[in-house]
Design a protein that fits this description.
Helix content: over 70%
Shape: globular
Largest sheet: none
């Protein structure tokens, strides 16, 4: 079925955003795991992410001010509720869970359970919230993904009684993946554009999490290493986590969801788990165990099977959701 010029342009934009997401998500897993062995706490990294992303969002808000509230909801109350929901699941929830998980579990586990389980959660939520049905092929792909997660996470649980804490990280990664899946499906359900969704998360975290955490550190209630960490590490984490991992990847991911749909989008991340796990061997010195290799194979195969079972993009409207401002004709 031939596509219109607008649809072809939307496909190219979606493909470019998908490549951007793959690169940033792969590096995110490596950077976050490496950060767990350095100076900062998990919540220190999250605070730097929210602070820098919030500052970057302010000029975007000034540019988008007239349409920002309308882009989130029909009225201000609905816009506030939806913005708070997105900030909670994709801001506080995802960062608190994901960053904490890297302090317990290695990259191979994060690769399998963080982006690897995303299609499973997304398909479940898309079925519950959007009424999307699963084909047999996609169901088989999701079953393989679940087997991969069980292979890795199940082995960690069996070692819990030996004093290993890896299972804690595995559970945190699974929960973080659920929060990000919720974000993608909610954006699809509410038809929220990439810029508005990203602004809602960045600004919501800036006005809530940033001052609350700073106050907790100031009065000594919350432990922090921000004052002891090297300035170079703080600057790198702020720019990478807030600028690339949150703002750029957030905009790109939401645009891919709008172009290809939430379930197909998560299938496009098939390269993230094997890339991150393989790169962790030479870069971080983390060996790949048999369970991790088996889990990666199951997840990778499940993603490929699910992607092949997905309907061609031309069978449904590609630009069914509003594109981000500046991406429309």
């Amino acid at each position: 079925m031939p596509t219109s010029p607008l649809s072809r342009r939307a496909l190219w934009i979606g493909a470019a955003c998908a490549v951007t997401v793959l690169l940033i998500w792969t590096s995110f897993i490596l950077v976050a795991r490496s950060s767990a062995t350095r100076s900062l706490h998990a919540f220190d990294i999250a605070w730097l992410r929210f602070s820098f992303a919030g500052l970057l969002a302010l000029p975007l808000l000034a540019w988008r001010w007239r349409h920002f509230s309308a882009g989130l909801g029909a009225n201000r109350r609905q816009a506030l509720q939806r913005g708070a929901a997105l900030a909670t699941v994709a801001g506080f929830g995802y960062c608190a869970l994901a960053y904490s998980g890297f302090f317990y579990a290695p990259v191979a586990h994060a690769a399998v359970l963080l982006p690897g389980s995303l299609p499973l959660w997304t398909a479940l939520l898309a079925w519950l919230w959007l009424g999307e049905n699963l084909s047999r092929g996609r169901a088989l792909g999701l079953a393989l993904i679940a087997c991969g997660g069980l292979l890795v996470g199940g082995l960690s649980l069996t070692r819990a009684f030996d004093g290993s804490s890896t299972w804690i990280g595995d559970l945190l990664f699974m929960a973080a993946s659920l929060t990000w899946a919720s974000y993608g499906v909610l954006c699809r359900r509410w038809r929220i554009g990439a810029v508005d969704a990203t602004l809602a998360i960045a600004l919501g975290c800036l006005v809530t999490a940033v001052p609350v955490y700073a106050l907790g550190v100031a009065v000594g209630v919350v432990p922090s290493r921000l004052l002891q960490a090297p300035a170079a590490e703080i600057a790198f984490q702020a720019v990478y986590q807030g600028g690339l991992a949150m703002m750029v990847a957030g905009l790109a991911y939401t645009q891919v969801v709008q172009t290809f749909g939430p379930v197909r989008t998560t299938m496009l991340t098939a390269l993230v788990p094997p890339l991150a796990a393989l790169l962790a061997v030479p870069l971080l010195g983390e060996p790949l165990g048999l369970a991790a290799v088996g889990g990666l194979c199951c997840v990778g195969l499940g993603l490929v099977v699910g992607l092949r079972a997905a309907a061609p993009v031309g069978e449904r409207p590609v630009a069914s959701l509003p594109a981000a401002p500046g991406l429309q004709r």
